[in-house]
Specification:
With about 400 residues, the chain is an alpha/beta fold. The protein is built from 15 helices and 14 strands.
C-alpha cells in the first residue's frame, strides 16, 4: 500500500505556500514571452573575469580553508571587511561580535522568523511587502499588522496608531519588518524624517526593527540616506544585507548586523540550518571587496539600471492609459503599478501571458492576498528593447480593460 505522506507532514509545513513569484516564473520560461516579472540582476554585467581570477587565487592559495567547513558566524576576514565597511557607513560600535554571514538574505529572514516568532505572534509589515519575507514569516505562523505605503515609505502616522492599539490590547509585537530603500515591490524610499520617527516609535513601544536593505547601494539619483541601524542609538535594529543584488546572487551570501546576544541566537539557529555558509564564496567576496572592485562594479550597475529605469518610465508614459499610475523609483529594480480597482491583475495575468508579456501580481505582496489592483514590473533584467515591447503589449491589454 502506498504511504499517505499527508499524515506525516507537520502542521507548520501544511500551512506553507509556494512563492507566488517562483511559481509564476515557471510559466514565463518561454523565449517568446517578455518577462518583466523577476527581480534578478542583469547577468551581462556580472564581473565574470574578475571573479574567475579571484576564484583561481582563492582555490590555489586558500583552497584548504575555502573547501573546508567554516565557522557558523562566517570566515573572520570577510566579517572584518564588512565591519570596516559598516563603520565607514556610520554604524556606531560595530564589531565582529555584531555581524554574522548568512546564506543570502533569504536565510536571514528565515532565521529572524525562527528566532522571534511563535505561532500566532504578531509582526508589523509594510503593505505591500516583500514576498520572501512574508513566506518566511508565514512558515512560522505569524499574524500581521499591515501599514500602507505612500511615496515617502511607510505611513508613520498609521504605524503609530496601530502600535498604540496593539499595546492597549496587550499584543506583544515581535518586530517591524521594513525595506527602507527602493522597496520591493513598491520602489519607494523611506524619507529621513520618517526614518527618525520609526526609530522613535521602536524605542517608545519596545518593538525591534528588521531592516532589510538589498538595494541601498543601487541608487541612481538623490542623496544617500542614513540606514535605520545607523540612526538607532540603543540597538533595536537588526540589519539584513546581501551580495545578491550588489554582486551576484549565485554566491548565496548575505550578512546580519545587530545586538550581539541576538546574533548568538541567530548563530545557534543557523547551525541547525546549514552549519555554515560556503567558505569558498566568502573568500571570493572578501577578496573582491579588499581589492577595490566593488565600487567600480556598482558604478556600472547604477549607470545601466538607470538607463533601463528611464526607458521603462518613458514607455509607461507612452503606452499606458492615463487611468493607470506608477511609482518613480530613484534606485533599485522595481516599478509598482496601480490600475483601476475594477481590473483584477491576478485574473489579467493569464491574458498577459497570451500577449507574451509577464509581470508579478500585486496580491503576492500582501499577507492575505487582499489587493488585486496592483502589479510589479522589473527593469533590471530585460533589455531596453524588451522593456519597450513588453510595456507596449501590457499597455494594449490594459487599454482593452479600461472603461
Amino acid at each position: 500500500m502506498t504511504l499517505d505522506w499527508s499524515n506525516k507532514f507537520s502542521r507548520r509545513s501544511k500551512a506553507m505556500k509556494a512563492s507566488a513569484i517562483r511559481e509564476l516564473l515557471k510559466l514565463v520560461d518561454n523565449p517568446e514571452i517578455i518577462s518583466l516579472a523577476g527581480g534578478m540582476p542583469d547577468p551581462t554585467l556580472f564581473p565574470k573575469e574578475t571573479i574567475a581570477a579571484i576564484s583561481k587565487d582563492v582555490f590555489i592559495n586558500h583552497g584548504g580553508k575555502a573547501l573546508q567547513y567554516g565557522a557558523t558566524e562566517g570566515i573572520p576576514s570577510l566579517r572584518e571587511t564588512l565591519v570596516k565597511e559598516g563603520i565607514k557607513e556610520g554604524i556606531k560600535g560595530l564589531t565582529v561580535d555584531n555581524l554574522i554571514i548568512t546564506t543570502a538574505s533569504q536565510q536571514a529572514l528565515a532565521l529572524s522568523a525562527e528566532v522571534f516568532i511563535n505561532p500566532g505572534d504578531t509582526v508589523v509589515v509594510e503593505a505591500p511587502s516583500y514576498v520572501g519575507g512574508l513566506q518566511a514569516f508565514n512558515a512560522f505562523e505569524a499574524n500581521y499588522i499591515t501599514v500602507p505605503l505612500d511615496d515617502e515609505g511607510i505611513r508613520v502616522d498609521i504605524l503609530e496608531e496601530k502600535l498604540k492599539q496593539a499595546k492597549d490590547n496587550g499584543v506583544n509585537v515581535k518586530f517591524m519588518y521594513l525595506i527602507p530603500n527602493f522597496q520591493n515591490p513598491a520602489g519607494v524610499t523611506l524619507s529621513l524624517e520618517r526614518r527618525k520617527k520609526v526609530i522613535e516609535l521602536s524605542h517608545q513601544y519596545d518593538v525591534p526593527i528588521i531592516e532589510d536593505d538589498p538595494y541601498g547601494e543601487i541608487r541612481f539619483e538623490g542623496e544617500k540616506l542614513p540606514s535605520l541601524i545607523q540612526l538607532d542609538s540603543i540597538g533595536n535594529v537588526i540589519a539584513l544585507r546581501t551580495f545578491s543584488k550588489i554582486l551576484a546572487p549565485g554566491l548565496r551570501l548575505g550578512w546580519i548586523m545587530g545586538n550581539k546576544d541576538v546574533m548568538r541566537k541567530f548563530v545557534i539557529a543557523k547551525q541547525a540550518a546549514d552549519l555554515c555558509s560556503p567558505p569558498s564564496t566568502q573568500y571570493i567576496a572578501d577578496e573582491f571587496i579588499r581589492h577595490g572592485h566593488m565600487e567600480s562594479y556598482l558604478a556600472l550597475v547604477r549607470k545601466t539600471y538607470k538607463k533601463k529605469k528611464d526607458a521603462m518610465l518613458e514607455a509607461l508614459e507612452r503606452y499606458f492609459p492615463e487611468e493607470v499610475k506608477w511609482t518613480k523609483p530613484k534606485g533599485g529594480m522595481f516599478v509598482w503599478v496601480t490600475v483601476p480597482e475594477y481590473i483584477n491583475t491576478t485574473e489579467m495575468f493569464k491574458e498577459a501571458i497570451q500577449e507574451k508579456v509577464a509581470y508579478v501580481i500585486g496580491s503576492a505582496f500582501y499577507p492575505h492576498g487582499e489587493d488585486t489592483h496592483h502589479l510589479r514590473l522589473n527593469f533590471s533584467l530585460p533589455t531596453l528593447e524588451q522593456i519597450d515591447q513588453g510595456i507596449k503589449r501590457l499597455g494594449n491589454l490594459l487599454k482593452k480593460k479600461i472603461h
